[in-house]
Amino acid sequence: QVHLVESGGGSVQAGGSLRLSCAASGYTFSGNCMAWFRQVQGKEREGVGLIFFMGNVTSYADSVKGRFTISQDNVENTVYLQMNSLKPEDTAMYYCAADEKYGCTWYVGTYKYWGHGTQVTVSS
User: DSSP code of 84?
Assistant: First the structure.
């Protein structure tokens, strides 16, 4: 059974940095993909970034490109989201997601496994 656990959220001032972690158990990184999404209460969940483990290929939403970086630790079975130059509009609950069937997509509905989320709050 796959379990995803996010950590690392918190409150920072604009311009600050945070590193989120997503620890995965029961999920094989090789040949698969993992994604980060975020959601503001009352709004739809939106994609932040993807990592395709084979080849370590990453992709980012335009809103975070150049500021956020996804990386993987195959030994720890953990994916990280390094967030720099944070803005108040980055405030949201951040989730990691994984799936073995559909590969890397930006669509919420294609991900079977989700963590419970970690809150990021950026103050101006």
Answer: -
50-74 in b/e form (b: 16+ CB < 10 A) is bbbbeeeeeebbeebeeebbbebee
Q: Which is it for the CA torsion 57, 62, 65, 70, positive or negative?
A: negative
Tokens of 103: 């590969």
Cα separation, 56 vs 63, in Å, equals: 21
pLDDT per residue over 1-42, tens digit each? 899 999 999 999 999 999 999 999 988 887 789 999 999 999
Rounded to whole angstroms, the Cα distance separating 95 from 111 reads: 11
Contact 116, 45 (CB under 8 A): no
Which tokens in the block code for residue 93? 């609950």
